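Reviewer 2 asked us to include a model.

Predict the structure of this chain.
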Amino acid sequence: MKRRPTIRSEHALLWLLAVLLLPIPSFAQEKEKEEEAPPERRTVLPAPDRGENEGDGPFERLIIRGVTLIDGTGAPPRGPVDIIIEGDKIASIQGVGTPGVPINEDRRPGDATFELDATGMYVMPGIVDLHAHAGGVPKAPEAEYMYKLWLAHGITTVRGVGLGGFEWTLSEKERSAKNEIVAPHIVNYQRPGSGPDWDGDTNTPEGAREWVRYAAASGVDGLKLGSGRPEIMEALLDEANKLGLGSTAHLGQSGVAQMNAIDAARLGLTGMTHFYGLFESLYDGYDIQPWPVEMNYNDEQMRFGQVARQWKLIHPPGSDEWNALLDEFLELDFYLNPTMTIYSAGRDVMRARNADWHKKHTLPSLQDFYDPSRLDHGSYWYNWTTWDEVAWKKFYQVWMQFLNDYKNRGGKVTVGSDSGYIYQTFGFGTILELELLQEAGFHPLEVIRAATMHGAEEIFQAAGKPIEYGVIRSGLRADLLIVEENPLANMKVLYGTGAVRLNDETGKPERVGGVRYTVKDGIIYDAKQLLRDVEEMVDKQRRERAQKEAEITTSG
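Predicted model (structure tokens):
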């Protein structure tokens, strides 16, 4: 049976009365608090207020001229079209000609208060990234860095799981919704037990339900769960579905033996993120993974190295058990948010370590975090071998086949990145996820649908509401990306660094592409300028480090 979640009920009203009286800290207050806190207790700094020269609009009547439209539904491209945006909503889309024939100016809509000439460019919905974190100290201490990288790649909505702390995320979500900051829209998922005013116990079913009511009243949009005890998971998910809250889960190895993906789906989980719990739902001859006797979960190379060995422990693709799992997920309207990008370095760590964007767009502090360390999460390259990479390549082959089979049955696969770990830099990691879906067998139009419409549908499903963005059509939010090259021909043109192409006229390679404009709420952002802003942040940190090193050398 498909779940039919109800809208938010009156269960949350008592919490709401209390929560509404809580002050939301300003950017200045947050900055002062962060600067005064000791380094080990600092969190990511909120974004500064949007500057006068950051973004144009919204406009009374914006017309984007001459684009080829990829609408996000899976429909083929069409164009040229003019797109009329009034305020923060798409008002209409008007065909203005036929390819190869000059546009008849008499057919074009008029009365624009602002025009954007995008003749020959491609437009698609803004990307919805369903697995986002906002860095942190020391790796990426300022939210502005993440936000601008996301927007520069056409990412107009991120689902934080969680993005940051409880109050911090509520504040940043509100500031972004009001366009007080340069940032994507924020969907706020939180872990059970979080919240400054929560002093209950989520280790009992009633306590778990009470926290869900508290979270709903506080303005949280959904739950980020682990692989909890069955009775706790049941209570959390049942209460969340009653209140119209979404849910996703990282069904980690520490609890997956008692809560795998199909277990959680049957309890009402909206969708899973990563792969944890998926392979465990298909074991052949095992009920738990046959770990080596020396296994220690806290040794991250062992943890991430061993998980890939599951590829040969399951019922094979096409088997009755494989098909039965696909069919049950489909019946439950279960979403798969694979985040293949975040584990892809395991297949070829040398490629990930030397990606094109690190030089200009990865903060030195973030690069330090990526480098092998037993202290930093996801930096588990203590002695990464060819054996490990071969295991991950085999794992991806099976994983990708499951995702493609699910999509081919009508199941919904969405896009998430989890960037900020394992050599995946914000924004760039999301585009890599699109490439990986294409590698899995998705047509580029299916990839874009996963990154836009299906992502929006996962967000709105729990509340039982129609999508408000994720497709380019009249009445929906004006969240778009515009790129000069055809992303269906080459997804690489969506990277901020573009794609390398040989110019046959000059005989020299050149970079083409990169998102040209990102439109959020009808506000036009120059994506290239956003990248330049990021480059300056990276350069600034390098200069500050060089100065400190020089001072140490001089004093020594």
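Residues 377 and 421 are 7 Å apart (CA to CA). The chain is about 35% helix and 15% strand. We have added this to the supplementary material.
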